Transcriptional regulator, TetR family (Nocardioides psychrotolerans), 424 residues
Amino acid sequence: MTSTASSRIPQEERTRLMRARLLDATVECLVERGFSGTSTTLVSERAGVSRGAQLHHFPTKNDLVVAAVEHLTEVRGAELAAAARRLPRGDRRTRAVVRMLGDHFSSPVFTAALELWVAARSDPALMAAVEPLEQRVGRETHRLTVELLGADESVPGVRELVQATLDLVRGLGLANTLTDDTRRRGRILDQWARTLDTALDGALHATLQETT
Amino acid sequence: MTSTASSRIPQEERTRLMRARLLDATVECLVERGFSGTSTTLVSERAGVSRGAQLHHFPTKNDLVVAAVEHLTEVRGAELAAAARRLPRGDRRTRAVVRMLGDHFSSPVFTAALELWVAARSDPALMAAVEPLEQRVGRETHRLTVELLGADESVPGVRELVQATLDLVRGLGLANTLTDDTRRRGRILDQWARTLDTALDGALHATLQETT
């Protein structure tokens, strides 16, 4: 039965599914046991993948953890873009945008990425892999945030306000790893949304006055 | 010579100095090698303290790392309070306050604390020690920030703006652990200082209008 069923799935698809199982298991391990508690043995057991197959696709622990965080970042990036399309227009948009970002940075992908960042600090080989990933993710998240807020970065101060918003949600994400910080985060982000709206209007107004 | 010199230092003072050497060495280890790369053996070697004496004062690695971060937090807290007394009054005060906080959260004590927070996520015994320390430090930093900004937390929104400021510098601190982020941080915090001043004035103004 099993061999008949599996032979109906093309090899390429089976490989893709196996890789996805390995990467999902790696993220679960990072979140539950941290970087130092994650091992390739534990991941292959959890994913139900043979050691040989796992080592073929990801020869080292670093290969595995970087690929896992990259994979989950792509999945979550797609989820974020989908959620962004459902955001309201008008008055409540900024609040919805910053709350969505706050949730994104408090999700398991943030926790897994945090484990990687911290481990990379004292592991040059891991740093070499993590730094370009982090820069790419940072640029994409920045671009999406600018688009969602309808912010005009040619106006002085606007770029820094968008960056501040992302550094704020990163800080809130870190706070959330110690204790569930959902309620406090909601209050802070609601106030941030009001402040951001006023500041973005103010920056635009100041620029218009200067040019007229 | 050595025994004559050391006999002039009272026992209590010698113990205090030895503890300080152990705790400083622990913070250095956490910053350079991370939590998993820090061991009691390495710390006692680096501090030049015998294993026996080290184990007498700090029986476990967790005792050592929590005491170390607590010690450095106190030292840096005192430094922060001293720096606060030198801050300018008037127009440039908010900028100076947020820049000082930004530097504080990008210092080695933040990096050492970050190692502890992340390790505590998957170590319940460490979490039990880290959580109350983190709460106490959080309260003290919040109280100091309110005082430095001359913020009135009875005005709606002001408490959240102070919290946002601290979550922002926490996020900037995390960004700084991967790459030196000093210049970007400076630009973001200068903009935030302007925005914060306007927001604090606006919150006060709105409350005054409501009450009259």
User: Anything to note?
Assistant: The first helix of chain A runs from residue 2 to 8.
